[in-house]
Amino acid sequence: MNESAFIEALKALAAHPGARGFEDDCAAIEIGGETLVLTHDMMVEGVHVLPGQDPADIAWKLVAVNLSDLAAKGAEPVGVLLGHMLGDGDARFVDGLREVLETYHVPLLGGDTVRGDARRAWGLTAIGRATHRPVPSRTGARPGDTVYLTGALGAALAGFEALRDGTGGDSTAYRRPRPLLAEGRTLAPVVTAMMGVSDGVLLDARRMALASSATFALDTAAIPIALPEHRRADTLRWGDDYQLLFTAPAALALPVAAHAIGTVLALGDAPLLLDGAPPAPDDPLGYQH
Known about the structure:
Layout: H1 3-11, E1 27-31, E2 34-44, H2 55-71, E3 75-85, H3 90-103, E4 108-114, E5 121-130, E6 145-149, H4 155-165, H5 172-175, H6 181-187, E7 193-196, H7 201-211, E8 214-218, H8 232-236, E9 244-249, E10 259-266, E11 272-274
Parallel strand pairs: 3-4, 8-11
Antiparallel strand pairs: 1-2, 2-5, 3-5, 6-9, 6-10, 7-9, 8-10
Helix pairs in contact: 2-3, 2-6
């Protein structure tokens, strides 16, 4: 089974309303007058991080990508649970974990450790508290809304290439992404739908459109990129930038700086239009396992 088919199979087991039909970045569970927002992400050596990468950077990224999911729900972090595979550089991993947790004022609440002979993997569960209800989801985009992106894409791609190739270029955006927690909390009361861009803006826009039963018509030239223009196609299909992709009424004065990159239409023959045409059927649009 590929990733999409496996997730479809899991949907039959996710009957609890907090699972949001597996159409979102996070679960949202109402408890005692509060809404808890929960998410879990994993990283694998050689897939999400380069072999031999500094374990301190791995720890930072593991926490940051989970906090980015909370940011897309406008949630305030409450704590994290860590799953760690023991191996070389564990002391450096702890150093990086301490740094990222202190930076974002997030407590470590528990977790589990294992040792194995396979390629190393790490997992983290982040728990947040909703600051606005209803909690933003992927499902609320409506025809007439504008599609927005909080910032430029491509710095993570440039950082990955610099680190992989040993050029000495700035690799910070790839190694230590920064979750947009404040922006997410500010946007939560006004957006109709929101998610973090982790697998490429085109693929994630298609996912949001499908969840919202709508068509997203994107103007690819309007999507801001941090790389030269000849790298645009690569940039739009690259993940790891963790900008916020959201929709809002067209006439709304936004409370944060953002770039208008498209329009929400009633669902047509395709959930995604790029410059007026659907992408080619064999275009992966972004990263898929």
